[in-house]
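Note on ligand handling. Small-molecule inputs were canonicalized before submission; formal charges were left as drawn, and no protonation-state enumeration was performed. Where a ligand contained multiple stereocentres, the stereochemistry in the source SMILES was retained. For inosine-5'-diphosphate, this procedure yielded the string shown in the input block below.
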Amino acid sequence: MFLFPVCSPFLTSPSCLSVFPPPEMKGKNPWNTPTTIIITVIGIIAIVALVTVAVLQNRHLPQKYKYGIVLDAGSSHTSVYIYKLCQIYTVGISSYASAPWKAGESLRACMQDVEQQVPKKRHRQTPLYLGATAGMRLLKYNSSMSDGVLQAVEEALQKFPFSYQGARILSGQEEGAFGWVTVNYLDDRLSQVCGLETTGALDLGGASTQISFVSDKYNGSESPSNSVNFRLYGNDYNLYTHSFLCYGKDQALLMTQSVPEMLNDPCFNPGYTAIKNYSKIYDSPCLSGWKPQKIPTHFTHNGTGNFQQCQRIVKSIFNFTHCKYSQCSFNGIFQPSLQGQFGAFSAYYFVMSFLNLTDTTMPLEAVKAKLAHYCSTPWNQIKQQHPEVNEKYLAGYCFSGTYILTLLMEGYNFTSEEYSNIKFIKKIKDSDAGWTLGYMLNLTNMIPAEAPDSPLLPYSGYVSLVTIMAILLFILFILCLCPLWTRCSKQPEIV
Ligand SMILES: O=c1[nH]cnc2c1ncn2[C@@H]1O[C@H](COP(=O)(O)OP(=O)(O)O)[C@@H](O)[C@H]1O
Ligand SMILES: [Ca+2]
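Structure output:
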């Protein structure tokens, strides 16, 4: 705080008089006496200092360029996010249950790449997390091998020069809630004034699928396990979220293939044929108890490419009958009425963008007609049209597209009108939509519970205020010197 000599043309306090030059200076030009010059210089320095401090105080500190690394260990892949994706192999760490050390090994190449991408001087301050999702939830459900896999992953990650924060299996609720945080954080729907409607999050993985949204009609009392409360930037959010384990698209496919007569498959293109191992189907925890007594080890999987028949088979893995709540989505799970816009990401996007069906303003009947045409296209023609696409994905697009429409329309009860409220998204403002960013923001407390102190004035307001103050102060100084000076130069009359 800068103290100014308190003197003013309106103040004739003795203190002011005594400050100024003594009588012997009478009649001389008051402006070039050393005292006046010193006072003026001090005043100007004070004003300049004030302006400098004010500008520095309000200068936006350059955002410290921070890194954070989160590994998304999904059921089918592990991705490394340092604000951009470094895809590792298309095999989830849960696939290494029988050889856990391979899980750690599978991360090495990409983590070495990450080590190059994060500036060396920031390695120690860069937090490193690994979050595992449904693939590991299923492994944990099925066996104790998940601990061995996490341990091997932990040993591998601790060898890197980052600030290792741990590897853990996320709950389905966390995966759904953090996906919602990411979508709304990137879409700037959290730090605004309260009342801005948030966007729902739809995440489709290989082993699970999540739905999360805020519903004005849902206060969490009905089915509390589906309720997550957030306080972000001073706003309270009561989020509805549910994660359907086994309803990721890969596990859903296995469940449709368990249907006994499933040798000729309408969800695969005509002419598609492959020899498959039944154990791959019945080893999944999602099908435990479904294994028929007598089955051959292998079966021939033939495609017949019929969308309507495929829809019927896909619907058979959903239970729409029992619901003990006021309303349900499927399998007896409570779901409040849908509300607002939704961002659908991960496999929702991979599938619908391949099928050119990301335009949700397209009438639903037209979407179904396009998908039916794709499903009925002969497999050889599909392979010729898409030589660059991994056949593992290419063979599954008819099923996956049909599964997505069934999940959204019959599962979550989107009406044909509400379908246009869904946006199939991969990125928002150059960041991938997914749970990882929300997870890291939460763990690094980068989203404050309370609103940051909103500046009374915008930055420019501060500068102009300070400048005006400085000019006024300077004028004040000049005015102060003159009348006092005049008055001071006269001998005080002794009465
Ligand atoms: O390019 C692609 N085309 C089609 N599907 C893809 C592509 N890339 C990834 N996927 C699928 O997206 C899903 C990603 O699932 P993820 O590995 O996140 O599992 P999780 O979230 O269930 O743990 C998997 O079904 C995977 O096959
Ligand atoms: Ca996932």
